[in-house]
Specification:
Blueprint lengths: L1 E6 L5 E5 L4 H10 L7 E4 L5 H12 L3 E5 L2 E5 L10 H6 L7 H8 L1 E5 L12 H9 L3 E5 L2 E5 L7 E3 L5 H11 L5 E5 L5 H12 L3 E3 L6 E4 L8 E3 L4 H13 L3 E5 L7 H10 L2 E5 L2 E5 L9 E2 L11 H8 L5 E5 L8 H8 L3 E5 L2 E5 L8 E3 L3 H13 L3 E5 L11 H7 L3 E6 L2
Parallel strand pairs: 2-14, 3-13, 9-10, 17-18, 21-22
Antiparallel strand pairs: 1-22, 1-23, 3-5, 4-5, 6-8, 7-8, 10-12, 11-12, 14-16, 15-16, 18-20, 19-20
Helix pairs in contact: 1-2, 1-7, 4-6, 5-6, 6-7, 8-10, 8-12, 10-12, 11-12
This protein binds uridine-diphosphate-N-acetylglucosamine and phosphoenolpyruvate.
Pathway: Cell wall biogenesis; peptidoglycan biosynthesis
EC number: 2.5.1.7
GO molecular function: UDP-N-acetylglucosamine 1-carboxyvinyltransferase activity
Length: 418
């Protein structure tokens, strides 16, 4: 096990470049299963989740070669095969192969990925959609089995705009017979990126980024070359870290339109933000003000930024309320922040955060990816030494985190822990 040691109190100053988006590359890697032809993905972040998704599709016979930040994916010998539980458990997003498998081979058998630290995360919306398209689903002994001798276009209304269900159903529909209409879909930028990749492969998908997506099934898809969009959550995390340390930071490659809700909150708290064509500049020289914040599907405030904004609010002036409306169990970081001196009360899905003058370094433990990011931010803001256990979570979603932070003047390093 490794931990991250952080000596807090140094303002983050300088420039970093945002990496490719984790939540865009994962569905796009799954989508390469939809063709027999080679694909080339550029701007791919070096993350554990990308490696594990690579293992998942390699299990199906896909060949992958990595050169720098480019992935060459050759699915010409891919076959439908059972995916073992040890792989699916390591990566929740492994469920994104269900749509492509059903679309191309008309069947799948995958181990249920189960819940995770942030919530139970059922797949009912994905499965209901597959059933509407003609699939028969059987869930037994921890596996989900699906067969669909023929897959038809259907008119599907999602009860909730689930990101994963929208992606899986888009991928199931691209090779189905006829037209699929997906209503009340997720509108995240990563859904638009998936649509763009599918259309480069010859699919007929339109509407991503809005409430309704229309997919006209085609008989076959070709290979495609595609550059992954920048990671809005990574960019947002560094902006929050800079604001918390009263620093100034330029995040090159960050897309303003993807971060509107986060930038609005940072401005409301008192940070200065300049939106530029190729990035975002933030400066925060005085104590920030507390704000209220509710997580919502995009374009609302992202749940994947909730732990980080909570860390920032721990030393803001006044009391703010954070409502987590997406995941039922995403406040583990609050107890750890309290060890550092934060004043936080949790009532179900509501956190009441009253700013204290300063946090103190402590030994804290991360249970999930964004919770880990929040603890790193708190460590950078705190007086003294913070040890963050559970840093392997960070490697799922942040490329070269220590290097990027060190280049901005942060004092942190990894150590082996017991
Ligand atoms: C790889 C990836 O892109 N992960 C993101 C994706 O996760 P993911 O795609 O898993 O998130 P969803 O949008 O599907 O889940 C949102 C909520 O809907 C519920 N739900 C979802 C599907 C379903 O069939 N039934 C159901 O009840 C979930 O339990 C959760 O409470 O979107 C989340 C919400 O923005 C982000 O936090 C994750 O970073
Ligand atoms: C919850 C997240 O990811 P995943 O859906 O891959 O668990 C996240 O990126 O914060």
């Amino acid at each position: 096990m490794e931990c991250l040691k952080i000596v807090g109190g140094y303002p983050l100053e300088g420039e970093i470049k945002v990496s490719g988006a984790k939540n865009a590359i994962l569905p796009i890697m799954a989508a390469t299963l939809l063709t027999r032809h080679p694909c080339c993905l550029e701007g791919v972040p070096d993350l554990i989740d990308v490696k594990v998704m690579g293992e998942v599709i390699k299990t199906l016979g896909v060949k992958i070669k990595k050169e720098g930040d480019t992935l060459y994916i050759d699915p010409s010998l891919a076959q439908e095969r059972e995916i073992q539980p040890d792989l699916t458990r390591r990566l929740r997003a492994s469920n994104l192969i269900m749509g492509p498998l059903l679309s191309r081979w008309h069947r799948f058998r995958v181990a249920y990925p189960g819940g995770c630290a942030i919530g139970s995360r059922p797949l009912d919306l994905h499965l209901k959609g597959f059933i509407a398209m003609g699939a028969t689903i059987r869930e037994a002994q921890g596996f989900i089995e699906a067969t669909a001798p023929r897959l038809y276009g259907a008119d599907i209304h999602l009860d909730f705009p689930s990101v994963g269900a929208t992606e899986n159903l888009m991928m199931a529909a691209v090779l189905a017979e006829g037209v699929t209409i997906l209503r009340n879909v997720a509108r995240e930028p990563e859904i638009v990126d998936l649509q763009n990749f599918l259309n480069k492969m010859g699919a007929k998908v339109q509407g991503a980024g809005q409430d309704v997506i229309r997919i006209e099934g085609v008989p076959e898809l070709r290979g495609a070359r595609h550059r992954i969009i920048p990671d809005r959550i990574e960019a947002g995390t560094y902006l929050v870290a800079a604001a918390g340390t009263r620093g100034r930071l330029y995040v090159r490659g960050a897309q303003v339109e993807h971060l509107a809700a986060v930038l609005a909150k940072l401005r409301e708290m008192g940070a200065y933000i300049r939106e530029e064509k190729n990035g975002i500049y933030l400066e925060a020289k005085k104590r920030l003000q507390a704000v209220d914040c509710k997580t919502l599907p995009y374009p609302g405030f992202p749940t994947d930024m909730q732990p980080q904004i909570m860390a920032l609010m721990t030393t803001a002036q006044g009391t703010g309320i954070i409502i987590e409306s997406i995941f039922e169990n995403r406040f583990h970081h609050a107890a750890e922040l309290k060890r550092m001196g934060a004043d936080i009360k949790i009532e179900g899905r509501i956190a009441i955060v009253t700013g204290v003058s300063t946090l103190s370094g402590a030994l804290v433990e991360a249970r999930d990816l964004r919770g880990a990011a929040a603890l790193v931010i708190a460590g950078l803001m705190a007086e003294g030494l913070t040890s963050v256990e559970g840093v392997h979570h960070l490697d799922r979603g942040y490329e070269r985190l220590e290097n990027k932070l060190q280049s901005l003047g942060a004092k942190l390093w990894r150590e082996k822990s017991e």
